[in-house]
Amino acid sequence: MEGSAAQENPALRRILLTLEYDGTGFSGLQTQAQSERTVQQVLEAALGKIPGARPKIWPCGRTDAGVHALAMPVHYDTQDRIPVEKIPYALNSLLPPDIRALRAEEVPLGFHARKSCHWREYRYRILQRRMPPALDRHRVWWIPQSLNLIPLRHALESLVGTHDFRAFAVKEERSTVREIYRAHLEVWPTEGGREIWLEFVGSGFLRGQVRSMVGTLVEVGLGKRDSSSMRHLLEQGTRKDAGATAPAQGLYFVRAGYQPYRH
After folding, report:
1. pLDDT tens-digit profile of 144-177?
2. Which H or E run includes 255?
């Protein structure tokens, strides 16, 4: 389609959209068999109301139910003549308030939001304080117990590099070998406690991988497993050997890169 489309229809444009969404009310990004409310379903319905737009999107990746996105790239094709800088305004007038188009740009017809992507970044937010949150109850994992960050950081370092992440994969039929370029921990003071950000940049991630890694790292921080167990999991572990899957609401798709990753 990419190579012949321009010759068949020179008016066809490929648009790269950057989306922000609150995943709380969505059953994930991709269209589901039972017609659940998903990001793809809602966005394609909005595109279907724009004359000339082809109501089919290709996202950079996928997010599960309850997972949020700060800057998710998707592309679609269109024959409309809306100036590219006005596309977000046109779409946002048709979208519900929990999803927003932040920006749009025209890209070559050979560009693909997923296949052209070099790396993806995720962030996981953990709130540590005695009392549960009200405002961020759908946006963080509240853990009232204290986490020891020294072994947690040590375990986090073990994830960097090319490994077989099968111990952290959920229902994965593809190869489970992936490369993580960066695994980082940030701490932010909050009212009555602190917020911990676990950030991961990688070539790609398996289904459930980030949340499984976070659940295992939290067990290290709680003293339920040794930090050295992370290396064992990467070398010969299975999913039952790793920690529980962290809740969806703390996970964010942060951004994607279309050039090789540089620290």
Report:
1. 999 999 999 999 999 999 999 999 998 778 899 9
2. strand 251-257
Q: What is the pLDDT of residue 10?
A: 58
Residue 80 annotated among the catalytic residues of the structure? no
DSSP 100-146: EEEEEEEE-TT--TTTT--EEEEEEEEEEESSPPSTTTTTSEE--S-
For 1, 76, 124, 188, the CA distances from 120, given in Å and listed in that order, are 26, 20, 14, 23
Q: How far apart are CA 198 and CA 147, in angstroms?
A: 13
Q: How far apart are the first and last CA of the chain?
A: 35
Helix axes 229-236, 209-221, angle to 10 degrees: 150
Q: Token match 């709680």: residue?
A: 222
Specify which residues 14 forms β-bridges with.
77, 107
Residues 252-261 have pLDDT tens digits of 999 999 999 9
pTM above 0.90, yes or no: yes
Q: Which of 64, 80, 98, 226 is catalytic?
A: 64
